[in-house]
Amino acid sequence: MDIRWSYLLTKEKRSCLTTRVGMNFFVNEPRGRVSLINEVRRIGKKRRTAEELAFEVGRMPRDILSRLLVVCGKVGKENTALYKKKAEDIGADFISESGRSWVLAYRTIQENYNHGHHKGVLLIGTNKELPATQISYEGSYGYTDWFIQDVDGDSIPDTPVGRVFGPPETILYHMDPMIIDSDIAIVFDSQPGRSKRHVEGLIKLGFEVEVLRKYTERDRKLLSVSEFILQFSDGMFDMRIHGTPEKWASHNAIIMDYKQASRIKFEGYPVIYSEACSTAQEGPLLKAFLDQGACYIGATLDTLNNLEPFDDWRDCAYADGWKFGFLDLLDTHDLIGQVKIGVDGAIYDRLAMKAKSELEAVRSGETIEITTDHGLSAAEWVMFGNPLRRSTVGPRADYSPGRLVVDT
In the chain, N or C: fewer CB atoms in 10 Å? Predict the structure, then answer.
């Protein structure tokens, strides 16, 4: 067997980015034509005019924002005062947390979170300024806010939690963002047409869907007015989209990097879901999306693809289970943070005892290492942005993903 393909087959479940020096991968297209993965293909409307890309935006309702508990880490006295004043302006409760452990932050949240009033927690600060839970998998290190979501202490996520960091103008915007209602969803797919499941799902959620192979400057305006952006990593290992803290990329092309993301001024706080590995590390890609005004959900470590089909996404503790669960619950809950904990809780509920025991060992401080694929896939997803942003769906949204296949 060809050494390269032997390697790919043994690593097929992974969607993490692996560099192979001197190799270029191509798509074999109909009629014998071979081309690099670098063109744009759309599903949906023809190229829109400037008038068609103009939408109204508005503030989040104050009666929703006032149900936020803002927890501010060690960001400096001047910045803390700014964020406290903003919390007062929007009617949200505000507390400072200077502890050096996620456990201390967790206890502070437990003491101040009122389940009868609060609807979510916004953490302000990087992983150093407001510590998250450290985790590791196969020698790589990351972090998660998954455990902080369990405010009532029963091991099941119950409280929407988002995190934001960056300069004051970034944080202040995320505390009180502008929301667009464009009903436009963007899908980044390195192999358009191979599978239409994601497009069909988004259409059933009420979106007009545009499919892009990669970012180009001519699509900047379209992206800026989108409501939902989905980057998925299905397909053969050597062709799917992979991730690093700097970019989304296929093996032969950059899909979007942090420099490109930093040129998009999002007009209405879109929700971005990234399935690729490690893009939720505090690297330049995540920073660019936050600075430009987007809510971002991604993983801090390897994301793994299922090797067997599942009748219910709740039984699929892999990237596809989490992704399709998220799409499924978008039309079930009012707020994005509720969607996330709905997925987290449902997948945790059906985890095997070994994976649950591993997570409990991390929670108790016995270890930071996760060895099971299921334990990692259940707990590695982090939300950056305001958890009380309303759920992103279009008119007459009604979607259930059905059976999950082995999409390779």
Answer: N
